[in-house]
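A quick aside before the break. I want you to see a complete sequence-to-structure record at least once, exactly as it would be stored in a machine-readable document. Don't worry about memorizing anything.
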Amino acid sequence: MVERDPTALVLSGAGTKGAFEVGALAYLIVEQGLTPDIITATSAGAILGTVLAQARTPVEFAARVDDLRADLLAMTSTDLVFAKQPWLAEFDGDPFGDAVDAFLTVRNRPPVPADPDAPVADSTPVGASPDATSDGVASSTPARDSDGARPVRRAHRRWHALTTVLEALPAARRAKGKLAGHAGSLLTLDPLEAAFRGHGTTGIVPIDTALVARPGLQLRLTVTALAAGETRYITEDGSIVTADARTPAPGTTPQQTDVINGLLASSSVPMVFEPRPIGDDVYVDGGVLQNIPVGAALELGARHIVAVLGVPLTAPRDTRDFTTVNFVGIFLRASSQIGFYDRQRANLAVPRPDGVSLIVIEPTLDVVGPFEVAQGLMLLDMDYGWMRAAEATAHLTDEVRAQAMTASDAATAARERAWYAEEALWSAAEVTDAELDDVRAIKTQVHRAMTARHHLGLVSPAGVEAWWQGYETHGADRPSDVPADLWDGHPEP
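That is the input. The structure line, written in tokens, reads:
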């Protein structure tokens, strides 16, 4: 039997933006039959990679892709993933606590893509209005609250911020007494650990660490050692190794921990989740230094590498006037955004030996927030990842591939706009014919983009017709005054 050259999957960190990665993996594994010999992964990718690492055969890998989809959709119920530290829990029900909850979920969503068919003077996507967080970072919120009212405008924010602080003072006094031992983060990943260890019924599929540790696949989960100040990896059997992906880390023993601790350490975003002590060091998110661990795959001898990214490689342009932005906004832009994207590109640019191939599957749109709570947006992002994987691996000229990517971006952006427009319908006191016509216009954009992509010879996910024939997925049932057939009496595109 002739041994094949080792194939590696490299999975990046991205929070619930990992939905894009799940869609890409569905194409690579289910449609193309990819069976990796090596998986290197960071943060959210470490969760995906560990679930996949229980498999060894094509059938097993395909079944694990189904598990990944179920896991990611279950994680939109944030209480299944994280719990608040005791001091932060004291603010539940107070404006400060509500602000933290909103910032982690809907306030941290990327902006809704602009409508290319809208006049420049009126380019706000249907159903959404541009908004900003307290540091001026753009976000998107529904155009109407459940009672049909418009959201709070910027002019009221300073007064709102002051009243928030004043109202939270009693809770702040209570919280102070609970900081001891819990001051290193806002949240803890204890619920996610319990789910992966099989405690309780959550919709998150438990991980069998014995299956992961079997021979036949090498796994490396990226972690950042705070004391040592370096990248390390946790292996399939729970050993901790240094940056060469093989040498045992100083002060550790073989099988020091297990892969569940490893994926949790790799996912422990500094400040958000508590650091995890393992052996004689304390570990946080591997994405601090290595969000795309191509280097580890090369160290393990990979000859064919497929890197799946959850976020784009290029930082989105920020149109704010930075002479007026406060120091928090400037720090976040410089460090958390510009610096992060630069590190990603450096991770990918590690020198490769002759003959080693690298395929990069990346989004060029940002669809969901890092702690997304809307299953509809997650499903949309999965479809986007599926299409982008098909485009990255097809035998196309550079020109045709660029055209295909433009089409899938256009379709995905239009579906995002449709989702927000439909959310407005779902919460409106009364639905007008004009609003329904706006949604139909967006569906026509989806159809137009997917038709262009099809004409380039690209395959599409099953059930693609529903993208323009019906509605996106929402958290509530369709209201009675929203027609079941959007096109009743109207010609479909």
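Two observations worth writing down. The chain has a mean pLDDT of 87. Residues 76 and 374 are 6 Å apart (CA to CA). We'll return to this after the break.
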